[in-house]
Every structure is written in C-alpha cells, then in structure tokens.
Specification:
The complex is a heterodimer of chains A (about 400) and B (about 300). Helix content of chain A is about 75%, strand content about 0%. Chain A is mainly α and about 400 residues long. Chain A folds into two domains: about 1-70, no CATH class; about 85-380, Orthogonal Bundle (ABC transporter involved in vitamin B12 uptake, BtuC), CATH 1.10.3470. A two-stranded antiparallel ribbon of chain A has the order 1-2. In chain A, α1 (about 1-25) packs across α2, α5 (about 110-135) crosses α14 (about 325-335) and α6 (about 140-160) runs parallel beside α8 (about 190-210). The longest helix of chain A has 27 residues, at about 235-260. Chain A starts with a helix and ends with a helix. Chain B is an all-alpha fold. Chain B has a single domain (about 1-285), classed as Orthogonal Bundle (ABC transporter involved in vitamin B12 uptake, BtuC), CATH 1.10.3470. Chain B contains twelve helices and two strands, in the order ααααβαααααβααα. A two-stranded antiparallel ribbon of chain B has the order 1-2. The radius of gyration of chain B is 19 Å and the shape is globular. The N and C termini of chain B lie far apart (about 55 Å). The model of chain B has no long low-confidence stretch (mean pLDDT about 85). The chains are: A mainly alpha (about 400), B mainly alpha (about 300). Chains A and B meet through α1, β1, α8, α14 and α16 of A and α2, α3, α4, β1 and α10 of B.
Chain lengths: ~400, ~300
C-alpha cells in the first residue's frame, strides 16, 4: 500500500525531472557550426536516475522521521566501539606503522598524493576550529591558505628566507589576516559572516591575479625551494619522503593542539557560542574574544598549510586559491562531522584520495561533492563520525578496589 | 561629459540586472532568513535555456522579436521550475534544522547545479545571440541610448513596478508579507506557508531568468560560471539596500551598478569585482542593516 504510493510518487518525480533536465541535458547547440545535437539517451538516464533517487529519498526520509532515537543509538554504539581502548589502541598502532613504512613501500607518485591529502587534513582541521567548534561559517578559508603560500614564496623571492623561517611567519601573517577579517564582522550574524569571508577571499585572489608588480599575476611564482634537511642536498624522491614525514609530524601536532584546545576553557566557550550565541553571552563569555581567537587560530593552520603547499609544489599561482578550494575544505569538515577530529581526517583522506584512484569519476568529483553536501545536511547532519562531547560519568568504585 | 553619460547608462543597465537578481535573494531572505546560494545558478540556467531555445529556433528559420519572446518565456518557465525544485529538495527538509544546515545545503546545491551544466553542456564560453538588437525603437530614443540598454532598463523597471503592485495589492502578496513578518502567526491565520514559500522561489527565479536573458544578450557570451559572480554581486546589492526590503534591493542594485561602472571607468578595469566586494564589506561593517533596512533586535 505504502510502497505503491511511493512508487507512484517517484514516477511523477521522474517525469518532472525528465522535463526539467530536457534543455540542458538533451539539447546541445554548437553555435559555431550551427548544428544541434540531440542526446535523447540522456533523458532516459535522467528519468531512471531520478526515479531511483526519489525512491531512496523517500525511504530514507521516512526512516529518519520514524527512528530518530534508534539511529542515534546506533551512531553512539559506533562511537562507543571507537572509544573502547582494547580496539582503538591496536588500530592506532597499526595506523602509525602503516604511516611510517608508507613512503618506503609505495612509489614516489603515491607519496606525493598522500602528502597532498595530508595538507588537506591540516586545512580541514584548521577550518574545523572555525566551523566545527565555533560555528562560524567561513567560505573564504582559502584566503588564509593563499596568504601562507604567498608569504613563503614572496619572502623567499625577495629576501631569500628559508622554509623554516617562513613557516612561523606565514602562520603569523595568516593569523593576522584572520583577525583583520574577523574584527569587523564579529557583530554580524552567521550568514553575513559567510558572505563577507567569501568576498574577502575573492578580493585576495583578484588582487593576486591583477597586481603584477607584487604577486607576478596569473603566471605565479615558480622555483620555490623545498625545505632543506640540515643543509643536505636531497633528490626529489628523498625530498618527497621528507615532506611526507614533515606533514605527518605537523598533522600530529595539529591534532594534539586542537584536542587540547577543544576541552580547554576557550574550546568550551566556542562550543557554547556555536550552540547559542545569546545564552553564551549571558553566561559571561567574551563573545568578541572567543570569535577572534577562533578566527585567528583557524587562519594560523591555513597559513602553515599554505607554506607547506608552496614548498611541496614549488610553484604557486592564484588559480590554486579559488572558491572551489574553500568549498572543498568546507565539504571535508561537513562530511567528516563538524567538530570531530577523526571524522575530519577520514573525510579529508577520502575526498582527496578517492578521486585520485577512481580516475573514471574525476569529472564527476565536484558534482558529487555538491550532492553529498545536500544529502549530508538532510540525512546525517552530524557527519560521518559525529563529534562526541566529553561526558563525565560516575562509575562505581568496585574496579579500583580490586586492583 | 559623453564618457560620463556612457558610464552612467552602463551603470544603470548593470544595476537593473543586479536589482532583478537581488529581488530573489531579498524575498527568500525575508521569508526564510536564508541566503539562497543557488540563486545565481538559477540565473545561469535561465540564460543557458534561453541560449539553447534561441539557437534551435534560429536554426529553424525564425528571426527577430519572436525568438526573443519565445526564448524568454521558456527560460522563465525553466528557471521557475528549477527554483521550485531546488527549494523542495534542498531547503524544505531543513526547515527545523539549525541555521547553518540550510546554508551549507544551499552551497552544495550551487556547486551541484554549476557542475551539472558544466558536464551536460560545456565549460567554454558560448556566444549568446544579441536578441535585443532586433527590437526596433523610435528614433527619439535610440539617439541617446543604445537599444539594448534601453530595453534592459525599461523591462527591469516594469517588472519591479509589477512586483511591487503584486506584493501590495493581491492576496498572494499580502500573504507573502505576512509570512515574512511572522511565519508562525501567518500559519495560525490559515496561510499555507509552504505554498507561499514555493511561490516566492518561483517569482524570484523567474525574475532572475529574465535578468539572465537580458544581460546575456547584452554582454554576448555565457558559461557555466556566470552565476557565481552575478550571485555574489546581486547579494551585495540586496545587502546594500537592506536585505528583506524590496525597494532596498532595487536601490542597492542601482547603487552597486553605478559604483562599479564609475570605478572601472575612472580607476581601473582590472579590479571590477574588487570594488563590488569591497563595497559589500564596507556596508556590512558600517551599516549592516543596509540603506533602507531597519535594524532588528535579536530575540530569544
């Protein structure tokens, strides 16, 4: 009975989508040779696809509507499993061993991809401070990334500054620009903040693209040196492995710092701010200070990631810092689960590594991102691995007595 | 003086288009308090549909104003249909969700639609036929203004007056204003809020599509990415005038268009978008409620 109804509904949805996608998907005009290509097979694809999707959609929506407590219970079961020391300790050791031997087992190419993925882990974790913890939707995160990358490239070009000097400088400059953007927009509500950060990132990109005397315009800066290893000359392969370990160490540092921050006074202030700004203020939290620190700290990691990116690719231009990049980092945070460190790491690795290995889908990468963002918000807003709030539970004393 | 006049007209032309798109943002924001990021993409889809229809029609031998009118009608229909569907898919299930959720969903929808057109059509710039050229104007007008500019300004003005009248005098307009004021109260008074929201999306999308057709034939080329820039600028216009306010969106569009036109004309054309974005940031810092908007108190 219910199934038949859903069947009927899906059928009409499919018809509607066939009509909707008709001009864009079926007709293709070639305005130079003045011919029209009719791609009728696409309409069948669109019809079948939307039929199936609509069917699943209704199914999921119904399940979500009915069994919310059960779904939550299952989610927390997964988390309990994760929190079980007997399970996660060996898993962590295996992971660490894998990370350690990875560059020696796999090829140079694989190591490079992994390094890129690790840069995104850093970016994701940094943005996680702003979006996940403090609830400040930043659509221009890539601006801070660009600040970091360009500060290393330019400082090196003009003053010959090395990687290790540029790393803190880039991070500081990015933090400073974070404060610069954050300061005026603190009074604004969440969605205004999103648009201002977006505008800010576009301004940065456009300036980098057009101010030739400063940033060498669209052609970018090349020959950025890779980081040195105590003055030794490294072959490209060795240097890639070095970069890889550098990133592993920095990612670990990031995780450590963010974990410490998350449960600190300021971290709890951020979460309070995210949950309810007014109540948070009423509890005596300095809203301005909390927001500014979130912005500055988030930007710091982006700046560091930018320096690393410049050092890894040895070439940067404004095309690497478009809105799509921001959207991708945001997708990492949202899909991973806002505020959840393991979630963000998994999402970053998945979103960067999967398209590399599934080349067939590489064209469809962005469209799938878009769809995933929508679906995630509707069906699983807490992300792949939801952030677990630390709870202090009272346990009976018997265990400690026996020991 | 002549140069000044050209820039002025160019600014008003641009501004009317921004205003048309900004109306969609401001209406949706007024009702749902949501920045409809996908709105720029609706505008882009409208322009694309018009291009496809116009090309097919011209290849079948039709010319002149008939092509313009048919292409616009189809584009408006499709844009409205897309706007309607976008709301049903991406925003309606999230009515009760925290504020950030529909915003992220909107960004997802924007990325999705962009790449949908990119994959189904092309990533290149397509030449858009200048449909506005075929409209014949009396000598008195075409002497001091380019015909396409005149048509854009004229159409935009008519549409905006029409919208104002609809909102002011029809039952639907009244219901829309009621929902914007207080959604729950409107519901209690027997207004079908979901239907009103759908209609808001349809009207906003239709206006954006008309803007898309007009500006595409004025500028002469489109690609899948035009919605992004136009979207942010139109949003800037909406904020400039005071978001949620209909006359504000119109005024904001004109102010933004003029600013851009004069800034690119007298300062530098490389930084066209920078001026718009800088204006947005300045407005949000110094007068976040906009020119015509009222500052609202946050309530618990």
């Amino acid at each position: 009975m219910k199934l038949a109804e859903e069947f009927k509904k899906s059928f009409f949805v499919a018809l509607w989508f066939m009509l909707l996608t008709f001009p864009i998907m079926v007709v293709q005009v070639n305005t130079i040779e003045n011919v029209v290509i009719w791609r009728w097979h696409n309409i069948i694809l669109s019809g079948l696809g939307s039929f199936l999707l609509s069917f699943c959609w209704q199914l999921f929506l119904r399940r979500k509507g009915h069994s919310t407590p059960a779904a939550q219970a299952s989610a927390s079961r997964l988390q309990h499993l994760m929190a079980e020391p007997r399970l996660y300790r060996p898993a962590l050791i295996i992971l660490a061993l894998f990370a350690l031997i990875f560059p020696f087992v796999f090829s140079h190419y694989q190591v490079n991809i992994m390094t890129t993925a690790l840069i995104y882990v850093m970016l994701g974790l940094g943005l996680n401070i702003e979006v996940g913890l403090a609830g400040l939707l930043d659509l221009g995160y890539v601006a801070f990334y660009a600040v970091g990358a360009y500060s290393y490239a330019l400082l090196n070009y003009h003053f010959g500054l090395g990687f290790w000097t540029a790393l803190p400088v880039g991070a500081l400059l990015a933090a400073f620009s974070g404060i610069l953007v954050g300061f005026p927009v603190l009074r604004l509500r969440g969605d205004y903040l999103a648009i201002v950060t977006l505008a800010f990132a576009e301004i940065i990109r456009l300036v980098l693209e057009n101010w030739n005397a400063f940033s060498f315009g669209p052609s970018g800066i090349s020959n950025i040196p890779r980081p040195g290893f105590f003055g030794m000359a490294l072959t490209p392969e060795q240097s890639a492995i070095y970069m890889y370990f550098l990133l592993i160490v920095l990612c670990l540092l990031t995780i450590f710092v963010i974990r410490r921050l998350q449960y600190s006074r300021i971290g709890r202030a951020w979460v309070a701010l995210r949950e309810d700004e007014l109540a948070c203020q009423a509890m005596g939290i300095d809203k301005t200070k909390a927001k500014l620190t979130a912005f500055a700290l988030g930007a710091t990691w982006a700046g560091m990631a930018g320096v690393l990116f410049a050092a890894k690719t040895t070439f940067i231009n404004p095309a690497s810092f478009t809105f799509l990049e921001s959207a991708m980092i945001l997708a990492i945070v949202v899909l991973g689960g806002m505020g959840s460190i393991p979630g963000v790491i998994i999402a970053a690795l998945a979103l960067i590594l999967l398209p590399e290995y599934l080349r067939v889908f590489s064209d469809y990468r962005m469209i799938l991102f878009g769809a995933a963002l929508i679906m995630m918000m509707i069906f699983r807003p807490q992300g792949i691995l939801a952030d677990m709030r630390k709870k202090y539970e009272f346990h009976k004393m018997k265990d400690s007595r026996i020991n | 003086m002549n140069y000044f006049w050209d820039l002025f007209l160019g600014g008003i032309t641009r501004g009317s288009i921004y205003a048309l798109i900004a109306l969609g943002y401001t209406m949706v924001y007024g009702i749902l308090e949501l920045i409809n990021f996908a709105h720029g993409e609706i505008y882009m889809i409208g322009a694309f549909t018009a291009l496809i229809v116009a090309s097919v029609l011209t290849m079948h031998g039709l010319t002149g104003v008939a092509v313009l009118i048919l292409a616009t009608i189809v584009a408006v229909f499709y844009a409205a249909a897309y706007g309607f569907s976008v709301e049903k898919i991406a925003y309606k299930p999230l009515r009760q969700a925290p504020r950030l959720s529909p915003l992220i969903s909107a960004i997802g929808m924007s990325i999705f639609l962009q790449n949908y057109v990119l994959l189904a059509q092309t990533s290149d710039f397509l030449p858009f036929p200048n449909l506005l050229q075929d409209v014949l104007l009396p000598e008195a007008i075409s002497g001091w203004i380019a015909p396409s500019e005149f048509i854009i300004i004229f159409t935009a003005a008519v549409l905006m007056i029409g919208l104002t009248l609809i909102l002011k005098f029809t039952k639907m307009g009244k219901a829309m204003r009621a929902v914007a004021q207080d959604r729950e109260m409107a519901m209690l008074l027997g207004i079908n809020v979901n239907r009103i929201i759908s209609r808001t999306f349809i009207i906003g999308s239709a206006l954006a599509a008309i803007g898309g057709v007009l500006i595409a034939s004025h500028v002469g080329r489109i690609n899948f990415y035009i919605g992004f820039g136009a979207g942010i600028k139109a949003f800037t216009a909406a904020v400039l005038g005071g978001i949620g306010s209909i006359p504000g969106a119109m005024l904001g569009g004109l102010v933004l268009g003029l600013t851009e036109s004069f800034a690119t004309g007298y300062i530098s054309s490389d930084y066209e978008n920078v001026f718009a974005f800088a204006l947005l940031i300045l407005i949000l810092i110094f007068k976040p409620e906009g020119i015509l908007g009222r500052s609202s108190q946050q309530k618990v």
